[in-house]
Amino acid sequence: MQRVTRAEVAKEAGTSVAVVSYVINNGPRPVAQATRERVLAAIKKTGYRPNGIARALASGTTRTYGLIVPNIANPFISSMAHALQQEAFADGRVLLLGDSGDDRARELELVNNLLHRQVDGLIYTSVDRHPYIELIQASGTPCVMLDRVAPELNVCAIQVNEQHAAYQATRHLIEHGYREIAIICGPLEMLNTQDRISGWKQALEEAGLPLHPEWIFSTDYTRHGGYQAAQRMLGGGLPRALFATNEQQAFGCLRALAEQGLSAPADLALVCFNGTLESSFNVPSLTTVRQPVTKMAKKAIEMLKRWDGEPHNCEFAFELEIGESCGCHPSPHARMSK
């Protein structure tokens, strides 16, 4: 079927094409109510739909934002994507999702693709915190990073202090009296892995506890990665406590423990980073660092709307949500109300 044109709508309504445009765009000139109703009735009868591409060319805006994330399968990332979609929709925008699958080559392809689509703004988390900023800045497209990046890049960013969050999570284990504390972390070349290891080390050093290099278990930020790292840990002697640097790794670790007849916190006290609602409903519930996803999403969209080209940074407070996995005994109501 051929696309219905505004000229056909105008003919059906008995008016000019310009008047049809005024009704569709709600201006710039006023239209009498009776004429407006005729045009709306003609649109309904003919099945006319505005041409989005033509409208974008005329208005200079596509009413779309782009979102690039490392892996949408990660529940924390999907919860952030959902919150961003809600905020974008409330702003009258469509959010286009690009999942790089933890692949930098694919990430570059997604950046180029979204820029070619002339999105009005880009929200971006790089696979390894080495984003393609020069490419984005050359296009003139507003961009907000959802992570800490090197200051010299001069980009807008929102984040929590991951080193301090890792420090607080490890310190919580120390306050329980645990002295042998291992870490399951992400790939060592990733900047967020380095931040989380630094926080873990800082807490141990302040408490005068030894740092055991053999208790640093690097793996993917996945359930399977956590499972494999925990198996390696079990093969070398079990520490008394563990900081897992994301929720999925913690779930994998719990599976490996269960296969050996072990559990948390009885045999291994456990805290993790980037918890979601899954942490509250797990058995045992996980003690985890929670980021204020909704507030962060709202701020990211606001920064795109008020874009002025300056490198604004916004740091958010995190919450250490107490569960059972560390040895605490929170009330069930407090856990489930999160």
Automatic annotation (TrEMBL):
Q: For the HTH lacI-type domain, which residue ranges apply?
A: 4-59
Which keywords accompany this UniProt record?
A: DNA-binding, Transcription, Transcription regulation
GO MF, one term, reads: DNA binding
Pfam assignment, any one: Peripla_BP_1
Q: Which InterPro entries match?
A: HTH_LacI (IPR000843), Peripla_BP/Lac1_sug-bd_dom (IPR001761)
Which parts pass through the membrane? Answer: none
What is the superkingdom listed in this entry's lineage? Answer: Bacteria
Its recorded name reads LacI family DNA-binding transcriptional regulator
Organism encoding this protein: Cedecea davisae
